Amino acid sequence: MTIDAPDVENSPASPDATSPTASSSPSATRRFLRQATEWTLIIVGALLLAFLFRTYVAQTFYIPSDSMNPNLLIGDRILVSKISVEWGTVHRGDIVVFDSPNNLVSACGTTPEKYLVKRVIGVPGDHLKSVGDNIYVNGALLSQPWAHIEPLGSRPISPTIVPANHYFMLGDNEPISCDSRYWGTVPRSSIIGKAVTIIYPFNRIGFL
Questions:
Q1: Is 118 a catalytic residue?
Q2: Cα 98 vs. chain centroid, distance in angstroms?
Q3: Residue range 146-168: mean pLDDT, rounded
Q4: Which of 6, 66, 146, 164 is the most buried (most CB within 10 A)?
């Protein structure tokens, strides 16, 4: 009697070493690991770029007060260029964000703020004073082509010489702004960047 041998090639119990099931598993694992590595590098790279951008190039800030009305309103979000201060020059008329002075609370009787936003009206070496609502810089009437609210209020600008590497700040809403008239000039090292544009709310998007 002849006994037929089982068909080894087609037997489900004995998969060949070259069958798809045996060969695809290691390959699929390698593909998964490669893709996971690639995505990890992409995510880490994106986070690193975002950190470097925020630290050295630009950052967004929220406007919490009415001191820069009518140009900046409560709730506005602005984009601030850091690189323009780091590698550029701060000019009279620039709107800048800077670290709050240490005497902010005692000088203004306000709540602590980490950052302030004001307009530069005095640069190093300038002689400033006010007469009524008129501001004089180096003996000449200050041109204020930007929108602002007068009067200066009960706090005039006392005759001041801006020290080296310092800047005199004034809020565009002059009657209510607590600024360099109260807490003095700001060192350049405290300036974070120049306000470039409003980015939110969308109906107020525009350059400053």
A1: yes
A2: 11
A3: 95
A4: 66
| 83 φ/ψ angles, rounded to the nearest 5 degrees | -65, -25
Residues 71 and 158 in one domain: yes
Mark whether 24 and 100 lie in a shared domain.
no
- Active-site residue (options: 65, 81, 82, 118): 118
Q: What is the predicted pLDDT for the residue at 69? A: 98
pLDDT at 190: 98
Instruction: From the candidates 67, 81, 130, 180, give the one annotated as an active-site residue.
Output: 67
Position 24 scores a pLDDT of 57
Number of domains comprising the chain: 2
Q: What is the pLDDT of residues 96-146, one digit of tens each?
A: 999 999 999 999 998 899 999 999 999 999 999 999 999 999 999 999 999
Is residue 6 one of the residues assigned to a domain? no
Cα radius of gyration (the chain): 32
Backbone φ and ψ of 171, nearest 5°: -80, 145
- Considering the domain architecture, whether residues 50 and 67 belong to the same structural domain is answered as no
CA neighbor of 82 nearest in space, from 106, 103, 54: 54
Q: Which of the listed residues 26, 56, 86 is the one where a domain comes to its end? A: 56
Say if residue 21's pLDDT is above 70. no
**One-letter amino acid for residue 129 of the chain:** K
